Amino acid sequence: MTKWLFHRQLDSAVTAQSLRTLLSDEWLLPKYLIRQLRINQRVLVNHQYHPVNTIVHAGDQIQLEFVTSDFTHLPHPITVDPAGTVEVVYEDHDLLIVNKHRGEKTHPNQPGELGSTLNFAANYLASKGEAPYMVHRLDMETSGALIIAKNPVAVPILNRQISNKIIERTYLTWVHGVGLPKSGTIDLPIGRDPEDKRKRKVNGINAQSALTHYQVLKEQAGNSLLQVNLKTGRTHQIRVHLAASGHSLIGDPLYSNDNIEQPMLLHSWQVVFPLLFSHQWQTVMAPVPKGFEPSS
């Protein structure tokens, strides 16, 4: 049975609070994991088990131990694929951030499938006795920073950080046209396109609220380079919103009518996130790929 151990000393930013509040509200552990820690007495304060209503303070030593049986729905292991590599831009005990290659699938769709970023990450981590766990995905034609968990404990925490918009992700994209306001917000609900199951559309089926902030960085030869921040995470959100604004992404195979064939110009450029079980923040940037500009 695999075990995952975490040791943390609470820093001065931690106020006096119950252990349960620390685990749930600050460290974002889901209830089912807190329950396993409690009933199996695998959470220690200063090297001793204490009930979760115990008040903890700055300077206290906290130890958490998780085991395989705590996770009832572990995904199928990702098959190792040595045929490709990953460009690691950040790594710690809990997660990996790689600069995903444009044209590469994020994850396999079937057990045993090869050729995705996660397959290549599995090969990278295998030599360390570790394995990748998917947290989020990037479209096949999108490059840039992709967060990959290195243990199942990190997965629900990172998922909550993403869904609660604690993790901030910034994209770069080239779009058709100029004349956009220097900065702006697109607030249009996005749902499924009834005429094409691959696509999404504004006010489509089961539309959900979607909020995109952008800033114009440069205008060149009738095109615009934008910096984009998402406040929601709908499928194809950047692509749908900018197409609806009349400024579709250059190279977008679904939402743009490009006269010149070229790769889609969308790059996950920067990620800002808190380290697990910590008040420390980390900023990671994924280098922009060569050729990230409109074809002449």
From TrEMBL:
Catalysed transformations (reactions): a uridine in RNA = a pseudouridine in RNA
Cited SUPFAM superfamilies: Pseudouridine synthase
GO function terms (MF aspect): catalytic activity, acting on RNA; pseudouridine synthase activity; RNA binding
Keyword Transcription tagged: no
Enzyme Commission identifier(s): 5.4.99.-
GO biological process: enzyme-directed rRNA pseudouridine synthesis
Record keyword Isomerase present: yes
Alphabetized Pfam families for the sequence: PseudoU_synth_2
Domain (Pseudouridine synthase RsuA/RluA-like): residue spans on this chain: 94-244
Record: active site: D139
Keywords associated with the record: Isomerase
Domain of life per record: Bacteria
UniProt record similarity statement: Belongs to the pseudouridine synthase RluA family.
Task of the protein: Responsible for synthesis of pseudouridine from uracil.
Protein name per the record: Pseudouridine synthase
Originating organism: Lentilactobacillus senioris DSM 24302 = JCM 17472
Organism lineage string: Bacteria, Bacillati, Bacillota, Bacilli, Lactobacillales
